[in-house]
Write a structure and sequence with these properties.
about 230 residues; mainly alpha; Arc Repressor Mutant, subunit A; Four Helix Bundle (Hemerythrin (Met), subunit A); 2 domains; two-stranded antiparallel sheet; about 5% strand; elongated
Length: about 230
């Protein structure tokens, strides 16, 4: 029933596998989970890893502890939190998928920002754009500054859910951007393209050009995927 997993992914993978088995009915709602010892033996990991994985599912409301009885799958409907496997997101093969996700979200973020931004928010976007150049000139990869640039655009939307979504994605975006930024740093023409694409997004937001901002952000993400493919070749 259980498949042994690599040590390096430990509690994350155990939690994912348990969640998948709950979803497919291996452990139906209201039923008791196997003991820590049984799960540890089945997955080939320590009881500490099992405890961490089950604790995560409990915190997410998927399972519940019944005093003196053990751990049970909750019988009621549970709003599942969004989860992304960090190892998959930061792997070179996974980065293109993160870029696709960014394209879907950030193109709309740029469009809404162009429609709603204030002058104060425009100033913050300009400042964030300048910070990327300064960071790169100082020898940094500019990843953190790049993320702050896109966050400044999200703030200009006035939509708190855009900000919450980007906050969740931050760790995965950073992992993916480290790969793309490294590629851009080793190809001078790549770095120039990125700068021009960022400038195009800012120009459209400044002009309150909704469609132009959407296209500029989409182009930026499409080109990021292309640059990644070219660098890997």
């Amino acid at each position: 029933m259980f498949e042994k997993i690599p040590v390096q992914t430990m509690s994350d993978n155990v939690a994912e596998r348990l969640l998948a088995q709950i979803d497919n009915g291996t452990f139906p709602k209201g039923h008791k989970l196997p003991t820590e010892a049984a799960l540890a033996e089945a997955f080939g990991v320590s009881r500490t890893v099992i405890r961490e994985a089950v604790s995560r599912l409990r915190n997410e409301g998927v399972v519940e502890s019944r005093q003196g009885s053990g751990m049970y799958v909750r019988s009621g409907d549970v709003a599942r939190p969004l989860r992304i496997d960090f190892a998959e997101a930061s792997d070179p093969d996974g980065v293109p998928y993160i870029i696709e996700l960014r394209r879907a979200i950030e193109s709309e973020v740029a469009a809404v920002a162009a429609e709603r931004r204030t002058q104060k928010q425009m100033t913050a976007i300009d400042k964030a754009l300048t910070a990327i150049d300064k960071a790169v000139e100082a020898g940094s990869d500019g990843v953190r500054e790049d993320l702050e640039f896109h966050r400044a655009i999200a703030i200009a939307t006035g939509n708190p859910f855009f900000l919450k979504t980007l906050a969740f994605l931050h760790q995965y975006l950073e992992a993916g951007m480290k790969v793309t930024r490294h590629n851009e740093a080793t190809h001078e023409n790549f770095a120039l393209q990125v700068k021009e694409e960022h400038n195009a997004i800012v120009a459209a937001v400044r002009a309150k050009d909704v469609e132009g901002a959407r296209r500029a952000a989409q182009t930026h993400m499409i080109n990021a995927a292309r640059r990644l493919r070219e660098a890997r070749r």
